[in-house]
Amino acid sequence: MNSAEPNWHEKVAEIWATAQGRDPDEVLAQIEALVAGHERDPLAAFELAGAYDFAGQEDRAEAPYRRALSGGLDPEHHQQAVIQLASTLRNLGRATEAADLLWAELDSTLVAPYAASARAFLALTLLDLGDDRRAAVVALEGLRDSLSEYAGPVGRYLDDVTSTDVDDEPEDEQPQVFNG
């Protein structure tokens, strides 16, 4: 959707502000009506994908997320789209692809508050993949980064845990742990 169009962001914000507790299909219909004719706009694709997810239609959400990401979203929406696409892929049973997407983003561009959110979704995805220990480390990293108290000790304990993991595994199978 053209960002110069009057009230575009306000209309979207109003829909999402009142979405909880409403019929998901109604929310989806409202978003679809707003983006109709603007499918090439990355922000419109992002909003449509989110509406599909909200309505439980993850199978329809993937393509608009990918259009949004390839279309050049601003950094904030880009980070949200990566996290939401990864969640969609996880829900579609493609946890490995979701984890790869989140690892790549964590290694490159994610910043607060999205880095902690990405770690939370990555931890869930790692649990799906049966990698419980790495899931716990990723979750604790996200928690550590949000702690106002005890961040130092939690960080040191995490360093101890991850260095023990590295010492216990063959060199070619070391865990990929984001320390950002």
From TrEMBL:
Segments forming domain Tetratrico peptide repeat group: 42-157
Ranges of biased composition (kind: Acidic residues): 165-174
Top-level division of the source organism's lineage: Bacteria
Gene3D superfamilies: Tetratricopeptide repeat domain (1.25.40.10)
Segments of this protein annotated with the region Disordered: 158-180
Name of the protein this chain belongs to: Tetratricopeptide repeat protein
Species in which this protein is naturally found: Occultella glacieicola
